[in-house]
């Protein structure tokens, strides 16, 4: 599904922002070329907060140990290996949208929320 996140001007170029969508913590970036990238805000190495990383071109450098991660496909660049989840985004009339499927919400909650917490979830 397509969810509106924020106005384009609320996201400065090269400055990561963290948003919460369906239980995912997502790092959002606006690149120098105007594109918006969205990736899970968790480095595949040791969980570094990618939103606080340095952005260069289509890459972010993790703030903890400087792994280089492609924001387009989520792939960690050599010599390191791994992948971070990416989310498709769109810009329409100066608003940023993210594509995220509702079933991902269920998967995430089942894996992270304690059982008694699920009873009270809406
Ligand atoms: S946690 Fe990101 S490089 Fe180590």
From TrEMBL:
<protein>
    <submittedName>
        <fullName>Nitrite reductase small subunit NirD</fullName>
    </submittedName>
</protein>
<dbReference type="Pfam" id="PF00355">
    <property type="entry name" value="Rieske"/>
</dbReference>
<feature type="domain" description="Rieske">
    <location>
        <begin position="3"/>
        <end position="98"/>
    </location>
</feature>
<dbReference type="InterPro" id="IPR017941">
    <property type="entry name" value="Rieske_2Fe-2S"/>
</dbReference>
<keyword id="KW-0534">Nitrate assimilation</keyword>
<dbReference type="InterPro" id="IPR036922">
    <property type="entry name" value="Rieske_2Fe-2S_sf"/>
</dbReference>
<keyword id="KW-0479">Metal-binding</keyword>
<keyword id="KW-0408">Iron</keyword>
<keyword id="KW-0001">2Fe-2S</keyword>
<dbReference type="InterPro" id="IPR012748">
    <property type="entry name" value="Rieske-like_NirD"/>
</dbReference>
<keyword id="KW-0411">Iron-sulfur</keyword>
<keyword id="KW-0560">Oxidoreductase</keyword>
């Amino acid at each position: 599904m397509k969810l509106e996140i924020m106005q384009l001007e609320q996201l400065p170029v090269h400055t990561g922002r963290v948003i919460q969508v369906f239980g995912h913590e997502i790092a959002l970036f606006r690149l120098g070329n105007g594109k918006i990238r969205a990736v899970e805000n968790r480095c595949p190495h040791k969980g570094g907060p990618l939103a606080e990383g340095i952005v260069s071109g289509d890459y972010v450098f993790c703030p903890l140990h400087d792994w280089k991660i492609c924001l387009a496909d989520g792939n960690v660049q050599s010599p390191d290996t791994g992948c971070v989840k990416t989310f498709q985004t769109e810009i329409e009339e100066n608003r940023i949208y993210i594509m995220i499927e509702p079933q991902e919400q269920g998967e995430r909650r089942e894996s992270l929320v304690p059982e008694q917490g699920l009873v009270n979830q809406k």
